[in-house]
């Protein structure tokens, strides 16, 4: 299981990249909150379990039960999301008032922003945990691999080639069409349309994979030997979603400030 180093480096690296790309709208306060939750957040349960083992008795049982609930991508947000967003918002305001940590915009984090960052940090924590814990035999990682084909050499089904080829062609062709050279340009509108296109294609792609894996009897390889369904679901939940939450937590744009277009 990854330790403090990988969790913090991954989250802080992502935070610094967002700070640079947004010209400070993702402030050092954002990065610090995101990093702390990506590292120590869900592992609060493990810490309580260790502390309970030192105290012994009922404290050990309580610490063990708490660890099971807290070290979970859903229960961590459900149980600690609101208390932590209140705490981090207060700490952000305190750090700004004491001039300990700069926020670029001069504003501290709101509770809403902190909730997004707490959730993003939690999901980013499990992005690494699911890939590198339990010697590669975690439940999530095992499910990802199970969406591939492992019985023998996967047969090449013509319908799979047609469907996957059609979807990939639509994705690339649609992207080129949306971002074609034209006299009237709106980067925000083009990005929004491109995102919608990608979401439609990935939904159809996952639907195709799921139909071949879970609905067809006997099961058929959806995309050769590839575990595309598991990979796409995992990336959506533990990579794109947390970074999307980070983007949703950005400070408002100040039109009088010189910023990079985003």
TrEMBL record:
- Write out the entry's keywords from A to Z: Membrane, Transmembrane, Transmembrane helix
The keyword Transmembrane helix appears for this protein: yes
Q: Per the UniProt record, which residue ranges are transmembrane?
A: 74-91, 160-178, 198-217, 229-250
Q: What is this protein called?
A: Uncharacterized protein
Say which species the protein is native to. Turnera subulata
